[in-house]
Design brief:
The protein is of the alpha/beta class. Helix content is 40%, strand content 18%. The protein is elongated and about 100 Å long.
Length: 634
């Protein structure tokens, strides 16, 4: 009986193999298994190590070590030779053994390179088990270690090699460095936790279960691994959910975060123009604009209180400005002082139950609640005040304050006699290095001898006093949060007789940001800034959108005031750019400082405790910081 069944299995596998072979030719793909000896040379390999016998995933077996029998198999190791060949006879005999009491027990021998396996001995064993859809096969593995380069694939693979002794699983391969420690966190483990056999089996089962909807939705065509997609899913759901959800519900949950999964390989789309400006340039969009709602309900969520935080108060004033400008077209609701996590999620759910069309979460720590809510309610527009968050379901918004810093720098350079100017920076987060450099460029524009002495308020509580103690009399301090909060020492200050006098200060105008965003929904500009292929969108607006500006002190000399006005108009009309050769993406992610800036980005371990949570979320080196259990997984 086993012989007949095995022969029938060969006929079925042969039919599938020949079909796969023809489809590969039609699509212009190589129709046979790859050959490792033809892919790599000695110069590409730093060494090799024998890992011993283990279970490896069959779907990661992509080729053979040598060219030997490659024409006998399709690319996915299904047979191609006629049933009356010697090869077919041996295949059928192996299949009989698989169907018998003993099964196929002898491990194959293979080489692993970049997480993909190339068989040296046991091709037919792979073929038989693959024809039955077996997820794994026993193998003696020899790892070929690639030579180190700076490329992202090599960096991710070296990180995998470091994590492999903890998991002993090839299912935990990612395309981005830093992902494994995030997986450990998502599973409730410490970064250096060694998995038990039960934990390995449980993860492997969950991985296989998740792989089905991933492939069903077209994940096989994406340049990411199943583990990459699974980690995105685990940022919204738990691993326990994965084990418990029925297959239909699991598919629905994967669909809910599919936009984020598809956006993974793509950079974030940084939008520097308003939705209205882009819509005005789109003739068809203006002609065929769909009907928009007459009135919107807008919710504001914050983990801070306006009477305790300048940041929260600035955004609340922006909310009030929105209500004033759009009058009876908007109705707002506030949820302030909610803790990030379940409390913030509950607040957003309540806002949606109350009819919210738009939710603004005004601080980066609320990104986790935003993502979970967006996955459940794709019909609601959810935005988080942050930058560089790679989630297509949540748009982010921030301001190009570096433009106003450039003008402040030019004022400082014009007023400085010695050329020595102080600068107090907030945190080493996205956008801050650009602001420091823009200030320095502005100072050098009006004073070629200008040198910037940099201190960080996230490292020392009295950074400005420290600069004053060193004899620096002209210092760029914190921006004023809103135009109505003129309080010394804000912005660019001069120290005279032990007192600080404010000369000019960049400020953030959140009211214009919120008005632009809400008006875009009311008037049809929202979709004008949607990114292609579900790419994440980051609004990053500046002077030309009135999202930022600079307030000039009354004591500023007339000539310097006039200069500031000229620079401001130049930036607004586009004739002047602080970084003319750089794209918005490069400016936003700038992580180096100019030579005329004396100082450096502080290390994470040097930060004051209260600064660390924000740097974990928005720091220019956030991917290098191991996550902690209380952090949302980015």
């Amino acid at each position: 009986m086993n012989r007949q069944e095995a022969s029938s299995q060969y006929a079925s596998a042969l039919k599938q193999g020949r079909k796969a072979y023809k489809e590969a030719l039609v699509r212009g793909r190589y129709p046979y298994p790859q050959v490792l000896d033809e892919i790599i040379s000695d110069s590409m390999v730093a060494g090799q190590t024998e890992l011993g016998v283990m279970e490896i995933p069959i779907d990661q077996i992509v080729g053979t070590k040598t060219a030997g029998r490659r024409s006998a198999f399709s690319a996915d190791f299904l047979p191609l030779l006629d049933p009356d060949t010697e090869f077919a006879g041996k295949w059928v005999a192996l299949c009989e053994a698989h169907l018998g009491d003993e099964g196929i027990r002898d491990p194959i021998r293979c080489y692993e390179y970049f997480g993909r396996f190339y068989v040296q001995e046991g091709n037919k064993r792979v073929s038989v088990l693959r024809s039955y859809g077996a997820p794994t096969i026993s193998a003696y593995v020899i790892r070929m270690i690639p030579v180190w380069t700076e490329g992202p694939e090599v960096a991710a693979y070296y990180e995998f090699m470091q994590s492999f002794p903890l998991t002993r699983l090839y299912r935990t391969r990612f395309t981005r460095s830093g992902s494994f420690v995030k997986l450990q966190k998502a599973l409730g483990h410490e970064p250096d936790h060694v998995w038990t056999e039960d934990e390995r089996r449980r993860f492997a089962a969950g991985y296989t279960y998740f792989q089905e909807p991933f492939l069903k939705l077209g994940g096989g065509e994406l340049p990411i691994t199943v583990a990459d997609a699974m980690l995105v899913w685990l940022k919204v759901y738990s691993f326990d959910d994965l084990i418990k959800l029925p297959s239909a519900e699991l598919l629905k949950s994967v669909k809910a975060v599919w936009a984020d999964i598809k956006a993974m390989p793509e950079p974030i789309a940084v939008r520097t123009d308003t939705p209205e400006a882009r819509e005005e340039g789109n003739l068809l969009g203006r002609i065929f604009k769909p009907k928009q709602p007459d009135r919107l309900r807008v919710a504001f969520v914050s983990d801070q209180l306006p009477d305790q935080s300048d940041w929260a108060r600035a955004h609340d004033l922006g909310r009030e400005y929105l209500e004033t400008v759009l009058e009876d077209r908007v109705e707002t609701e506030v949820f302030y002082g909610v803790h990030p996590g379940e409390e913030a999620e509950a607040a957003m759910e309540e806002a949606i139950e109350n009819g919210a069309h738009i939710i603004f979460a005004i601080t980066p720590p609320l990104i986790g609640a935003c993502r979970k809510t967006a996955a459940k309610h794709p019909e609601v527009r959810i935005l988080n005040c942050s930058v560089s968050m790679p989630y297509a379901g949540v748009r982010t918004y921030y301001s190009r304050i570096y433009e106003a810093k450039y003008i402040a720098g030019a004022i400082a350079g014009a007023l400085s006699r010695s050329g020595r100017i102080g600068y107090v920076a907030s945190n080493p987060i996205f956008g801050v290095p650009a602001s420091i450099n823009a200030f320095a460029l502005g100072a050098r524009l009006t004073n070629p001898r200008a040198e910037i002495t940099l201190r960080w308020s996230c490292v020392e509580e009295n950074a400005m006093d420290a600069l004053a103690w060193e004899g620096v009399s002209l210092i760029s301090n914190r921006d004023i949060p809103t135009p109505d909060r003129i309080r010394e020492p804000w912005g660019l200050c001069r120290i005279e007789n032990g007192k600080f006098h404010s000369l000019a200060s960049p400020y953030w105008h959140w009211g214009n940001v919120y008005t632009n965003l809400v008006r875009s929904v009311l008037e049809g500009g929202w979709e004008a800034l949607a990114a292609p292929e579900g790419q994440a969108v980051n609004y990053w607006w500046g002077l030309n959108s009135r999202a930022v500006d600079i307030l000039l002190g009354d004591d500023l000399p007339a000539g310097v005031r006039q200069l500031a006005g000229i620079l401001r108009r130049g930036i607004i009309d586009g004739s002047l750019q602080p970084f003319p050769e750089a794209t918005p993406e490069k400016i936003l992610h700038m992580d180096t400082l100019l030579d005329c800036v004396h100082g450096q980005l502080p290390r994470y371990e040097d930060l004051l405790p209260m600064a660390r949570p924000l740097v974990r979320l928005q720091g220019v080196y956030r991917d290098a910081i191991p996550p902690e259990k209380e952090d949302p997984i980015l």
